[in-house]
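PROTEIN FOLDING TASK:
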Amino acid sequence: MPDTFHENGSPMIATEITFAKQFSGYDREQVDRYVNRLSGAYQTAFTEYNELLAAYKELKQRNDLLEDAASNRPDPDLVTKVLMDSEATAQKRIADAQLEAQVIINAANVIAEDTRADAIATMEKAKQTLAEAGEMEERARLRSQKIVDDAITAATQVKAIAKGCLLQIDDIIAQTVSDLQQMK
């Protein structure tokens, strides 16, 4: 099994991974197209995760500014409680979104590993019975398409959940600012 991570710990994209060459197997161009599609879906999910992380850092910075502004208030205990409640709510929603994203990614990894194992078994059968190769290739293509479609659907769902969380966090921050202004 080839290495799938760079030395700095970041994951390699599918097009960077190399495999040993064998005498027979699937059509290289078809496999390359499939790997490129899968790599693109993975890269999209990885990019969206980084965008969510950046959004979280921005919200944390906004929250820190609110805490600084609240320190000038006559009742710091009340301001601190409101800010801590807001941050706890935001942290929980972010954690929930990250957990759900990880569950989806884990499920996609299991499906991908199962599919890889199925493909290896299918290739061995194809070597034994050339007449069955066409039928097995079509089944593998349909299964791969479903995995790619499922991965794209999962990434879209994660993105929608994350956007919803960010909107809710913005609403919480806006409400907190409004509460602070009303306390003046």
In short: Residues 76-128 form the longest helix (53 residues). The chain has one domain: 31-82+91-183. Helices lie at 28-70, 76-128, 133-183. DSSP finds three helices and no strands in the chain.
